[in-house]
Write the structure tokens for this entry.
Amino acid sequence: MGRTVWPLLLCGLVLCASCKKDDEDDAEGDAPAEKKEELFRVKGNETPFSFRLPPSWEVDKALDIAPVKDPPAQKEGALPEIELSGRLIFAAQAEKSDGVMAPPRLQIFHDPWLPVGTTATDYLKKQRKQNEEAIRKGHEDAVSEIRHVEAERSRREGRPAYYVRDEWDFSAAGQKVTVTQETLLLIEKVEDALHGYALVITLLGDDKKKMGDTVREILDSVSFKGM
């Protein structure tokens, strides 16, 4: 889940933490209430599903999508390990607010050719393991323990799915901010092949307080119908 999200967010967090101290005295109290927007349905060029986004979110139309690699050669014996491709197929982010350097961001990753027999739990374990490695890489002293806040197993229109929420604290420029990742993991079967999809929304703690309902609404809106 942190394969590409973390490096992109880190730059914003460093800037955000450096300016937060200056703004703290003028920004006491609870975060303002979320400005509700009516979500509209969108579909990425390479997503086999559609989903809803707020109209104010900007889609990255210049995203360079890597081609799908050929399926790995089949080997006899033990089942092959799950390999996550890091193939980013969609990205969008919320509007930047004054003083916010790392606005909420949605990224969708595609993991083709999962081993036959891969379950949603297998996919979750691999995602979390790789995510923790990506988050900590080069920032061990700045990142707290990863908190696995929530993991809700379900099915999405017959497909194995997991809704996941993880959190960690990041320290920079003498300040500490909480980072939240909310993720929908899906496994799609196409003929005899399994494909994994991870819809990852990364946001700071204050934005979580303001936009928590919208984030969950985005992830709940995923639909394969009519695709």
Q: What stands out?
A: The chain is about 25% helix and 35% strand. The first strand starts at residue 40 and ends at 42. The beta strands are 40-42, 51-53, 58-59, 87-93, 105-114, 147-156, 159-172, 175-190, 193-204. The two ends are 25 Å apart (CA to CA).
